[in-house]
Structure to design on (452 residues):
């Protein structure tokens, strides 16, 4: 954090608390691409220390209205009995729009929550508890959070997808199914968290301590939140569908305990598929920041290669494919050969050494450690592509030619327009094999994950 921002915050807290304030323990938190987030401790004149979290808009992407709505949502959620951090302050007085809240003890990192022994006892209880928490979210009075947007979710998502002019056959199959099976619009619309998932939940050994990141709150169908929580991306390899913690039955039962009504499995399935498509589009949106040259961060570059994971999940949800073992071409690879006239080690061995270095780099800095792992993953993708892409391109061209289609764009457009039957086994097989080829390069292990 910059020194001027620290001074502004110190002055603001002194004004709020009526005396001098000292700030200690500044630490930037890893993860989160949309905002800068810091952990700190503020000690007031009475000697009481306050653990705090500060979230700031990046200067290049200010959104004071969104930050103000998030502050209102936090306050309203607390009134509704939702576990949230206590709001300390918000506004634009520090330069960027900011949100200052108490720091809640617990864990947010999904892989720890799903694997560490200290959470073993609470994990089986979380699916039902998360259902109860979401039911309370949906009791928040609409008028208590003024200015929340309400849009047609499918139209909005379709428009976002179309803006990249990057049609994909697997996603077209998903959008077509959503349009054909859409549930009735819920009236009146309710407050929806918009990003309720593993990673935005503070959890300890006793259960859910806080629901975080309310910036995407909006008005809509409450089942959207339940479906988003069940999206496969938030299971992080677990077979349990509710954030990796437990079965859908437990989620719905917990929801009904508070809400008095239980969403149908068909509704939940529709919103789960919608969430899968939404994450695919959001990954593509983040990748566009890299592709456009606006931000050359490795995080955004790698997100572009995660879209195929969501394409695969769409096919899983539609019953077009099943979990499959996809071999990793890099497994136990030790070739050091080089193309003449170059000396050894060759290009792949050099890339392997960089990948190994990045995997172990920056051990003392959480943010750099995270970025190093992301960069190591990017190198692995590049190595697999160099080894597999030529043969894959030839095979994929043959599949498309058998369908009378020039490329993926042509096939995607044909699915959208109804020029091909989306249930045609040859069409589905071509789409499935194309996605599996992409996964073999981007993340071969993903295809073999168990599905709940």
């Amino acid at each position: 954090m910059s020194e001027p921002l620290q001074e502004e915050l110190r002055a603001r807290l002194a004004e709020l608390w009526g005396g001098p304030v000292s700030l200690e323990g500044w630490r930037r938190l890893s993860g989160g691409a949309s905002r800068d987030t810091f952990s700190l401790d503020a000690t007031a004149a009475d000697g009481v220390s306050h653990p705090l979290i500060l979230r700031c808009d990046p200067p290049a992407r200010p959104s004071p209205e969104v930050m103000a709505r998030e502050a209102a949502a936090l306050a309203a959620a607390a009134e509704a009995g939702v576990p949230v951090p206590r709001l300390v302050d918000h506004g634009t007085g520090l330069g960027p729009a900011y949100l200052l809240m108490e720091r809640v003890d617990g864990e947010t990192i999904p892989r720890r929550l799903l694997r560490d022994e200290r959470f073993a006892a609470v994990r089986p209880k979380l699916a039902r508890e998360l259902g109860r928490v979401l039911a309370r979210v949906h009791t928040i009075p609409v008028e208590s959070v003024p200015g929340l947007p309400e849009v047609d979710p499918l139209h909005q998502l379709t428009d976002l997808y179309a803006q990249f002019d990057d049609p994909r056959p697997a996603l077209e199959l998903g959008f077509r199914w959503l349009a054909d099976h859409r549930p009735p619009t819920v009236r009146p619309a309710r407050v929806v968290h918009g990003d309720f998932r593993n990673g935005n939940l503070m959890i300890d050994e006793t259960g859910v301590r806080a629901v975080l990141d309310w910036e995407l709150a909006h008005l809509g169908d409450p089942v959207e939140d339940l479906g988003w929580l069940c999206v496969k991306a938030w299971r992080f390899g677990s077979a349990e569908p509710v954030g990796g913690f437990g079965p859908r039955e437990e989620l719905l039962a917990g929801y009904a305990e508070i809400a008095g009504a239980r969403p149908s499995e068909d509704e939940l399935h529709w919103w789960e598929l919608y969430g899968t498509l939404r994450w695919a589009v959001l990954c593509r949106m983040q990748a566009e920041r890299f592709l456009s040259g606006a931000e050359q961060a490795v995080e955004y570059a790698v997100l572009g290669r995660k879209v195929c994971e969501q394409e695969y999940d769409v096919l899983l949800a539609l019953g077009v494919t099943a979990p499959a073992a996809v071999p990793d071409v890099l497994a136990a690879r030790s070739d050091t050969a080089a193309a003449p006239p170059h000396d050894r080690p060759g290009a792949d061995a050099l890339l392997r050494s960089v990948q190994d270095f990045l995997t172990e780099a920056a051990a003392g800095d959480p943010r750099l450690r995270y970025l190093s792992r992301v960069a190591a993953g990017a190198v692995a993708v590049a190595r697999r592509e160099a080894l597999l892409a030529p043969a894959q391109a030839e095979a994929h061209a043959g599949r498309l030619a058998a369908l009378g289609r020039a490329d993926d764009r042509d096939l995607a457009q044909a699915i959208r327009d109804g020029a091909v039957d989306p249930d045609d086994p040859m069409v589905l097989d071509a789409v499935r094999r194309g996605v599996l080829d992409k996964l073999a390069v981007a993340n071969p292990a993903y295809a073999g994950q168990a599905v709940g």
Remarks:
- The longest strand covers residues 36-43.
- The beta strands are 22-28, 36-43, 49-56, 87-91, 98-102, 190-192, 201-204, 207-211, 218-220.
